[in-house]
Design a protein that fits this description.
heterodimer, A: 282 residues, mainly alpha, 13 helices, 75% helix, disordered C terminus, B: 313 residues, two-stranded antiparallel ribbon, 2 strands, 77% helix, extended
Chain lengths: 282, 313
């Protein structure tokens, strides 16, 4: 919607907008650029008290330390595993549920959809206390299973709500036509519905992945063994454990941010669509 | 020939549909819903109910001590726990109101800028959404570095221009620092919502206002603001609910003790009661109180603003 007709802008206004945009870009971009620079800077130049705007040379030592001297690689793998499993499970369960409420008529259908949305109101901090007791009595303390289940449960209401709106917009006739042509119902769903609802499925996967990738609270409460820690807990403990190695912490920050960033850049368009349809939690 | 095959197919399909009907629709519906329903009932709604029950008990986190105390301990929080409960409620309110206000101001301003045309607009839009995508733990450690009193770039810049560094991680500054950091990372949420709405405003409205001789500020107040009022209504409600229950960014930034004292909001207090003092019953009570406060807030908020924002748009 740039360049609206009928809105004549003077050069002063144009200048002003460019200035404001540059300021905002600087405020958002600079800390992240600084993180990247610090991670590539030689150690001796980090703690000078007089920050160098550009290091004398760029090097990857901090990254090497991060992967060889700490448990970072394990935390990273744990996070990928937990977030990935929670994402797959959420997509599967939410797709089935969204399909049920859009394609079958049964009493209580609207009630279920409404209840799902209502649960969106409960913040993690309100659930974590009873959840902790439940997980402990189920013998799931210190397992990734407990984490995967909690992230799935937290992402489900939003995911189902979003997929429901996508499924609704797909005409029933498409599916019936496929079934007339000999496809079974599961085949019709896999070949017709899921591809058409792909933007929704993608929005749901990013949302779930980021919920799981980001979570500190549940991971802190449910996991105690160092081997099983996910990134947020692992990185926080790393930070608190020793005299802070800033170069290494910034390297960790860069590595943790990359998966979220890649996801985001790839699917920005759909994510924004998802935002419009129901909001992202956080 | 083709027609005959088509007919056969249709017949085969009808037979299959009939076979399917032996399993009635409602059963199919509930079967497919079952996994989602079980997860949400078992892992969200049941814990919420359980937490109401727990809140009426005094329960230790590890020892099998559990006694019924009824509402007495609620009274403790409400009447005695001035330094704990009331203080954390007050700090939590300051944090929620302060950071939501700033997020709205910055978010709306940024949306207005992004709604204009300028060089590199797509790039800047991506950049402005970025802070929201950075994981909280990274935001926290990055800000500790950037704002670090001895080595950080921001205090250094402030000192070089002669302002002097305020000491971002000291008692008096802690709440402000926390609000600023939270605004940095959460304002894109408001930005997206407002920008989406701005792009659907009819340009004729602006043209008409300009013919009437309205300047930029009057155009914003009389055209833009009424148009975005309804989306702001939802965004403010969501933001307040999220910020009032925000735990991780505060905890990671300060921990519970030391300077954490100055930003010990209700969620932080709940966590400390449960997992440091090991009083699960007290933690559950605080969770329930948070839930009641938010519900009350939502009801009052709707009463106060719903009609007005509906009139406006």
């Amino acid at each position: 919607m740039s360049g609206r007709p009928g809105r004549a802008r003077g050069p002063g206004f144009t200048l002003w907008i460019h200035g404001a945009a540059a300021l905002l870009a600087l405020l958002c971009g600079f800390p992240l650029l600084w993180m990247l620079l610090t991670s590539l800077e030689p150690d001796a130049e980090i703690l000078t008290g007089e920050p160098l705007l550009w290091p004398s040379r760029l090097q990857l030592d901090a990254y090497a330390r991060l992967f060889s001297e700490t448990g970072f690689a394990i935390y990273f793998w744990n996070s990928i595993k937990v977030a990935g499993t929670a994402t797959l499970l959420t997509i599967l369960v939410a797709t089935l549920a969204a399909y049920a409420v859009t394609r079958f008529r049964f009493p209580g259908r609207e009630l279920v959809a409404g209840t799902m949305l209502f649960t969106y109101m409960f913040a993690p901090i309100m659930i974590v206390v009873p959840f902790y007791i439940m997980v402990r009595s189920a013998g799931l303390m210190n397992t990734h299973t407990g984490l995967v289940l909690s992230y799935t449960a937290f992402s489900l209401p939003f995911s189902m709500w979003l997929l429901r709106s996508f499924f609704r917009s797909i005409p029933l006739e498409l599916e019936e036509a496929a079934m007339i042509d000999g496809a079974s119902r599961p085949q019709a769903v896999a070949r017709i519905i899921v591809p058409l609802a792909l933007p929704g499925v993608i929005a749901v996967s990013i949302f779930t992945f980021i919920v799981a990738w980001n979570d500190y609270l549940f991971a802190r409460v449910l996991i105690s063994s160092d081997r099983l820690k996910t990134l947020p807990v692992g990185m926080n403990d790393l930070y608190n454990a020793t005299v802070t190695d800033w170069g290494m912490m910034m390297a960790a920050g860069v590595v943790i941010t990359i998966p979220a960033l890649v996801f985001f850049v790839l699917v920005q368009r759909w994510l924004i669509a998802g935002w419009g349809a129901g909001g992202v939690k956080g | 020939m083709a027609a005959v095959r088509g007919t056969e197919r249709t017949i085969a399909w009808r037979e299959r549909r009939l076979a399917e009907r032996r399993v009635p629709q409602w059963l199919w519906g509930w079967l497919l819903l079952a996994p989602a329903l079980l997860l949400v009932l078992g892992l969200i709604l049941y814990p919420v109910a359980y937490s109401f029950w727990l809140s009426l008990h005094s329960k230790h986190a590890y020892l099998p001590v559990q006694t019924f105390v009824g509402l007495d301990n609620y009274l403790f929080f409400l009447t005695q726990d001035r330094e704990g409960f009331w203080r954390s409620l007050w700090l939590g309110t300051i944090y929620a109101v302060g950071s939501v206000a700033l997020q709205v101001v910055v978010g709306v301003a940024a949306a207005l800028v992004l709604n204009e045309s300028f060089l590199g607009r797509t790039f800047v839009r991506g950049l402005l959404l970025f802070p929201y995508m950075v994981p909280t733990i990274v935001v926290v450690i990055l800000m500790r570095w950037v704002l670090n009193d001895s080595y950080g770039i921001v205090p250094w810049l402030l000192r070089s221009v002669g302002v002097g560094a305020p000491g971002f991680f000291t008692g008096e500054m802690m709440m402000l620092t926390l609000v600023l950091i939270s605004t940095w990372t959460f304002f894109p949420f408001v930005l997206i919502g407002v920008l989406a709405r701005l792009q659907t405003i009819d340009p004729d409205l602006y043209a008409a206002a300009e013919i009437d001789g309205a300047g930029a500020i009057r155009r914003f107040l009389h055209v833009t603001l009424p148009q975005i009022a309804s989306v702001l209504f939802v965004l403010v409600l969501l933001r307040v609910m999220f910020m009032f229950t925000k735990f991780d960014i505060i905890w990671l930034l300060t921990g519970g003790g030391g300077i954490g004292w100055f930003v010990r909001t209700l969620p932080v207090y709940t966590f400390m009661k449960t997992f440091q003092e090991l009083q699960v019953g007290a933690g559950a009570r605080l969770s329930v109180i948070m839930f009641l406060i938010l519900t009350g807030f939502a009801v009052v908020y709707f009463r106060l603003f719903r009609e007005r924002s509906e009139e406006g748009s």
